[in-house]
């Protein structure tokens, strides 16, 4: 009996010694492998498709990794992407490597910059250089004050330039060229759960965020030559700026001092088959955001294909949106309080004739999605006060008014599709026109009355022919002229 216990003790000591020796061998070989130069060389044999670098790394237990200064970048025929971090740790399922999958659990990283963009025409055949990390969010940019009634008008894009893409609209990438098969073809990255703290810069589809944010991912997967998806992604923004980068308007500031909570899911999709805004149809979830808006370009992009109406200005944004497959659902709401709103009405883009007008004032933009008679409707309301309206490009005063109201009604917007033309109505309150005969061009040709110095309420209905029915109401007698 005593002998059997002694033998059992020996086996226990031997097992313990074996584990200790194996751990020592693992620590030596594993950490030597991670920090020697030949492993990056082996992984980077096809740097145009995938490139991996790190400053240092170590492992204590099989599958457990800690890395500092990690950068990854790669490209497919349709897209290029990059990722860098200060430090992080994760558990790697070693067995998944036999199935061409890098499967990670319990990922925790910080000091992150990341992005993905469609490859445009003129991109080099080699790996595009990664952009430098965006500057940290700073103070609110100085707002540009719009001209007052007696000042020069805003500069407006001339007609010959209007064939260019609408502001805020995604640029259509060229069709990707076929690429030869790579030794990384078929490899994928699968992340069960990840907590990504201190995001300094994040770029997606030409929109670049810089500031402070935190991202949590669940069941994220990306195949290097295949689809990408995530069961849930939650981005919590503490502060930051949003810019739109393009060849036409590099670094265009859209919003500053952003705060918000974005909780979405992304269905599996192939980036090359969903360029630009088309990927929005695969998004569902909720977006709550506030900030100082510096551009109305994102609204202009969804006002209609004709682009006869454009908004501009700055203001304080509050938005709460509910998305289902890219469509704004009932309860979605957006509000902007602005001290310097401006609208450009271009009748020529709707009817081929007519005038251009610039309307300026302070006011509010409010949009929501609601049910009307059992059908969803998107409504956008613009209310201005102390309004000046001028004819362009001659800066001729058309009218002044105490108030202006613009109402647009359309079907629920799908962010992945070009919207149809909305039904539009406009109304001026207590409008004063130097010469009401300026309205003659909108009346029946054989019936052109002339009015001078009238004070009236003016209401206009607008459709595809732009000007459908003007109505004037005045409380006192008016000099009709000869």
What this model shows, in words?
With 482 residues, this protein is mainly beta. The protein folds into three domains: 1-36; 45-121 and 136-141 and 187-295; 302-314 and 332-482. The chain has helices spanning 2-35, 38-43, 297-300, 348-351, and strands spanning 50-53, 56-58, 64-75, 79-92, 101-110, 112-118, 188-204, 207-223, 228-244, 252-269, 283-293, 309-312, 315-324, 327-328, 333-346, 356-372, 375-392, 396-410, 423-432, 455-462, 469-473. The chain has a 21-stranded mixed beta sheet that branches.
Summarize this structure as a short list of keywords or feature phrases.
482 residues, mainly beta, 3 domains, 21-stranded mixed sheet, 21 strands, elongated
Distance between the termini: 130 Å
The percentage helix is under 10%
Count of discrete structural domains: 3
Mean pLDDT, to the nearest integer, reads 75
The proportion of residues in beta strands is over 45%
């Amino acid at each position: 009996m005593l002998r059997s216990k002694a033998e059992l003790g020996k086996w226990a000591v031997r097992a313990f010694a074996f584990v200790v020796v194996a751990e020592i061998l693992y620590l030596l070989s594993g950490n030597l492998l991670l920090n020697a130069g030949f492993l990056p060389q082996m992984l980077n044999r096809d740097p145009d498709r995938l490139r991996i670098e790190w400053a240092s790394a170590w492992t204590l237990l099989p599958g457990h990794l800690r890395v500092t200064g990690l950068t990854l970048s790669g490209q497919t025929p349709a897209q290029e992407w990059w990722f860098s971090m200060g430090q992080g740790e994760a558990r790697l399922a070693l067995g998944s490597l036999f199935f061409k999958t890098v499967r990670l659990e319990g990922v925790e990283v910080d000091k992150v910059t990341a992005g993905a963009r469609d490859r445009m025409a003129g991109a080099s055949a080699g790996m595009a250089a990664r952009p430098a990390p965006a500057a940290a969010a700073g103070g609110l940019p100085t707002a540009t004050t719009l001209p007052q009634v007696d000042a020069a008008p805003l500069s407006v894009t001339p007609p010959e330039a209007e064939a260019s893409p609408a502001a805020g609209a995604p640029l259509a990438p060229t069709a990707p060229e076929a690429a030869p098969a790579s030794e990384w073809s078929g490899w994928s990255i699968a992340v069960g759960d990840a907590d990504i703290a201190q995001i300094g810069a994040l770029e997606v589809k030409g929109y670049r965020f810089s500031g402070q944010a935190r991202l949590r991912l669940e069941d994220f997967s990306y195949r290097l030559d295949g689809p990408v998806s995530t069961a849930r992604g939650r981005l919590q923004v503490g502060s930051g700026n949003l810019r739109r980068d393009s060849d036409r308007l590099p670094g265009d500031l859209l919003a500053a001092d952003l705060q918000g909570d974005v909780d979405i899911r992304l269905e599996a999709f192939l980036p090359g088959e969903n360029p630009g805004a088309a990927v929005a149809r695969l998004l569902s979830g909720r977006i709550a955001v506030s900030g100082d808006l510096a551009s109305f370009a994102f609204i202009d992009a969804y006002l209609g294909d004709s682009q006869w109406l454009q908004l501009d200005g700055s203001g304080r944004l509050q938005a709460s949106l509910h998305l289902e497959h890219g469509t704004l659902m009932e309860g979605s709401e957006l509000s902007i309080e602005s001290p310097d709103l401006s609208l450009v009405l271009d009748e020529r883009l709707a009817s081929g004739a007519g005038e251009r007008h610039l309307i300026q004032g302070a006011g509010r933009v409010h949009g929501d999605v609601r049910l009307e008679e059992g059908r969803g409707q998107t409504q956008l309301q613009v209310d201005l006060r102390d309004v000046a309206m001028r004819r362009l490009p001659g800066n001729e005063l058309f009218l002044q008014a105490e108030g202006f109201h613009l109402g647009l009604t359309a079907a629920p917007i799908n962010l992945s599709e070009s919207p149809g033309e909305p039904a539009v109505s406009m109304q001026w309150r207590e409008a004063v026109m130097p010469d009401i005969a300026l309205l003659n061009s909108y009346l029946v040709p054989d019936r052109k009355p002339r009015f001078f110095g009238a004070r009236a309420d003016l209401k206009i209905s607008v459709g595809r022919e732009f000007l459908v029915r003007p109505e004037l109401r005045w409380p006192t007698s008016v000099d009709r002229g000869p």
